Amino acid sequence: MSQRRINPRRVLSLIAWQTFLAVPFGVFFNLLYGEGLKTLLPFILVSLLFAYVIGLAVMVNRMWILPAILRTVRPQGTSALVIEIGSFAVASMLGAILSGVLLNATVAHGQFTSAHGVASFLAFTVLFSALFLGWIYAVRFQRRYTERIRAEAEAKAKEEQELRIAGEIQRGLQPGRPHATRSFAAAGAAIACRTIGGDFFDYFDLPGGRLGFALGDVAGKGPPAALLAAMVQGIFTSHVDDGHGPAGTIERVNRVLSQRIVEGRFATIFYAVLSPDGRLVSCNAGNNPPFLVGRDGSIRRLERGGLPIGPFADTTFEEEETPLRPGDTLVLYSDGVSDAADPSDEPFGEERLLRCLGAACGMEPEKLIEHVLGEVRAFAADRPQFDDITLLVVRYAGE
Description:
Order of helices and strands: HHHHEEEEHHEEEEEEEHHHE
Largest sheet: 6 strands, antiparallel
Number of strands: 12
Shape: rod-shaped
């Protein structure tokens, strides 16, 4: 069993603090019982005796007696604090009594043996023990509060650092740059309302020169949504090349997800496959219906599909086949775009989004995304973003 050793620095600190405390007490008792300056030094010396003996008793209690009591009793919470305060109170009073005995046996010459002297001594012992304990625990609680604030700040900084790393990892899961071939051009952007979010987008090169692309939105925000989004994206990526088409792919993803998803969580997703000849096959599982903007300015929505994925394992989904002409543009978006609100709480809405698209449908996909995001930011002004914003734009260029 390890033994506690006396730290020389702690002893020096004890002497310094007890000396600092003894001087005011010496002045106080000199004012009560002394005869001015000629008795000030003796009262200070007496106060130093009391201070050193009480300090020694408190140190002994802290290092040996209190730990032994706590090991034996094993109190919890408030009980431990009461025992700790009680032990220091007893130690300080015993130190004061021992000092009085020493003083009475030496220079006081029996002045503490009378009933009045004993009563006065005990009254001052209790009073100054209480003052001593009050000062000790005020310092201790202030120190503990400071340490708690520092620990919370360090934990928060560590959490923010971990979230930044998670955000970098999540952004690394998204396509890093626009995707362009002779037949297609695709670009996307995802802006989380927090460090990490629950939206994702992706596009894939499939056999036969086809392009697969998807946009998903997981219910919720922050780390839980981000974890689920990463899981959905991972499951989805593993099934895009299984040859079953968008509806069949989403059905398989839904079955896998429903076996692993936390109760009450779900995700919406739009997935489509575009062939070089302009044949678009799509399935919308509860996501905002994308806008298909024709080169002639016509607009239609792709709504066919089914329910969100996750809650129900046996859900079936429908496909929608749409022929595209060169110059047609498909715009996928999450509800963070249409639900973005201005300072008066008015949502951006789909009408404003359509006006943005109509005015800029000739832009390249990447420029079109920048244009829409700029319009959303200008509309929201200084209001904080409260939902993840994700856009994916695919343009068909022809064979």
